[in-house]
Design goal:
- By secondary structure, the protein is of the alpha/beta class.
- It has a single domain (7-310), classed as Alpha-Beta Barrel (TIM Barrel), CATH 3.20.20.
- 42% of the residues lie in helices and 15% in strands.
- The strands form 3 sheets. Strands 3, 4, 5, 6, 7, 8, 9, 12 and 13 form a 9-stranded parallel beta sheet that branches.
- Strand 12, helix 10 (249-258) and strand 13 form a beta-alpha-beta unit.
- Helix 7 (143-160) runs parallel beside helix 8, helix 8 (176-186) packs across helix 9 (221-232) and helix 10 packs across helix 12.
- The longest helix has 18 residues, at 143-160.
- The chain is globular.
- The model has no long low-confidence stretch (mean pLDDT 90).
- Residues 5-288 form the Dihydroorotate dehydrogenase catalytic domain.
- Its cofactor is FMN.
- Pathway: Pyrimidine metabolism; UMP biosynthesis via de novo pathway.
C-alpha cells in the first residue's frame, strides 16, 4: 500500500497523501504514534504564535514590559506547549517517528520573531508552515498593501531557513491565483488551502462581538475545492495541501482531482479518533485498485488542468446552475417541532 500511495509534498517523499493538520493533538506523543500507525503521511504541529516568540525575547531584555509589548497571554502556552517545549517536541517526534514533522508559525507582521524558525529547523523540523490569519485592517491600508505584507513575511521566512516553506492562507483574497504567484516569487514551496477561521457572533445583550473556534462543518468541502481550482488557474509550480472539511476518502479524492497534492485532516480526528486516517487511506487505496490507475502518482498525473478563457465562459460554472434549475439543494437538516416523552415516543 505504501508504494501505491507514495507522493511528494514540498520535496518530501510521503508514504501517504493523508496528513494530520495543525492542531494541539499533534503535541501528544501517543496520539501521534496512533496517527502514524493509522497511515498518516506527515504530522503538522500547532502553530507557535508571534506573540509568544516576542514575549520570549522581551523576557530576556525587559521582563517588566514583556506581556504589554508582546500581547502574549499565558493560555497560549496551553495550546501549543510554549516556545521551549515546542522545540523539545519537534526533537522527540522526529526521533520517534519515521514521517516528516512539520512545524508551524502564526503571525501578522514582519519582524525578528521570524528568526525562531531557525530554531525549529535546528530541532529537526522537516518543513515549515506559515499560518496567516486575516485581521481587522485600517481602511487606509489597501488590498495590495496587505498582500505585500504577507509576501514580506514569507520572503524573510524563506531566507531564514533551508527547509521548505508552505503558506496557509484564508480564502479572503479576490484573486487566489495572483496571490499564489506572489508567494511563489517570495520563495514559498507550497500552499495550504485554507486556514481554519473562527466563527463570529454578536451578543445582543452586551452589544459586542465575540469569536469562538469550532470544528469544520461536515459539508464544508465545497469551498475548499473552489479555492484549489481558483489557485490552480495560475498554472504555477506550487504544491497544494487541501485543509478544512476533509473527513472521508471521497473528500480526499475530490480534493486531489481539484488539484491538491495532499490532504490534511483535523476536525474528523477530533470527531472520530485516529482511526479516521486509516479509513481515508484505505478508501483511496481501494479507489486506485478498482480504477485504471496503477498508483497515486498516475492518478495525479491524469488530472485536468484549469484553463482560462473568455470571461463569459469562466462565468458558466456559477451562472449555469443558477439559471438552469428551479430546484435548489437544501443541506440544512429538517428540524421537527414534534415532542415526546423521555423514551422518544411522540405525543399524539
Amino acid at each position: 500500500m505504501a508504494s501505491e500511495l507514495a507522493c511528494s509534498y514540498l520535496g518530501m517523499e510521503l508514504d501517504s497523501p493523508v496528513m494530520v493538520g495543525s492542531c494541539p493533538l499533534t503535541m501528544e506523543h501517543e496520539t501521534v504514534r496512533q496517527l502514524v500507525d493509522a497511515g498518516a503521511g506527515a504530522i503538522v504541529l500547532p502553530s507557535i504564535l508571534q506573540e509568544q516568540i516576542q514575549h520570549r525575547k522581551w523576557m530576556q531584555t525587559s521582563p517588566e514590559h514583556a506581556i504589554q509589548r508582546s500581547g502574549y497571554q499565558p493560555q497560549q502556552d496551553k495550546y501549543n506547549g510554549g516556545t521551549e517545549k515546542y522545540l523539545r517536541t519537534i526533537e522527540a517526534l522526529r526521533a520517534a517517528e519515521s514521517v516528516p514533522i512539520i512545524a508551524s508559525m502564526d503571525g501578522l507582521e514582519d519582524g525578528d520573531w521570524i528568526d525562531y524558525a531557525k530554531e525549529m529547523e535546528a530541532s529537526g523540523a522537516s518543513a515549515l508552515e506559515f499560518n496567516w490569519h486575516p485581521s481587522v485592517f485600517s481602511p487606509s491600508e489597501s488590498a495590495e498593501e496587505i498582500e505585500e505584507r504577507v509576501c514580506v513575511i514569507v520572503r524573510h521566512l524563506c531566507a531564514s531557513v533551508s527547509i521548505p516553506v508552505a503558506v496557509k492562507l484564508s480564502p479572503r483574497f479576490t484573486n487566489l491565483a495572483s496571490m499564489a504567484r506572489q508567494l511563489q516569487i517570495a520563495g514559498a514551496d507550497g500552499m495550504v488551502l485554507f486556514t481554519h477561521l473562527p466563527q463570529w457572533d454578536v451578543s445582543i445583550d452586551r452589544m459586542q462581538w465575540s469569536i469562538r473556534w469550532e470544528l469544520s462543518a461536515v459539508n464544508s468541502i465545497g469551498s475548499i475545492l473552489e479555492g484549489i481550482v481558483r489557485t490552480r488557474a495560475g498554472e504555477l509550480d506550487l504544491q497544494i495541501a487541501a485543509s478544512g472539511g476533509v473527513r472521508t476518502a471521497e473528500d480526499a479524492i475530490k480534493s486531489m482531482i481539484a488539484g491538491a497534492d495532499v490532504v490534511m485532516v483535523t476536525s474528523a480526528i477530533y470527531r472520530d479518533g485516529p482511526g479516521v486516517i486509516r479509513n481515508i487511506v484505505q478508501g483511496i487505496s481501494k479507489f486506485l485498485d478498482t480504477g485504471p490507475y496503477e498508483s497515486l502518482a498516475d492518478f495525479l498525473q491524469a488530472r485536468a488542468n484549469v484553463k482560462l478563457g473568455p470571461e463569459h465562459l469562466m462565468r458558466l460554472p456559477s451562472g449555469d446552475p443558477l439559471t438552469c434549475s428551479e430546484h435548489y439543494f437544501n443541506p440544512t437538516p429538517v428540524v421537527t417541532t414534534d415532542t415526546g416523552d423521555v423514551f422518544g415516543h411522540k405525543h399524539i
